[in-house]
Predict the 3D structure of the following.
Amino acid sequence: MVIMRIFKHFLKCFFIVFLVVFVNGCIYVFTLQEKTMDKIKNGARVSLYEKCSIYTMHMAVYMFGWPLSPEAASEIFNMSFP
């Protein structure tokens, strides 16, 4: 009984973290990606939030994009982990 409650709390926490990462990734891709690319092109510093957003989108592509486009997923994986 106690193990089931712990497992349910773990699943809730996992789902919340997954949801936050997914929402952040969507916000970043559709609104902030162009600004970050302009910063990189101009040689400006990229904030920690922008770096984390880039890496979370990379993770989403190689984790969930594998069935749709295995070539893109493997390329992103190789870029993330040389």
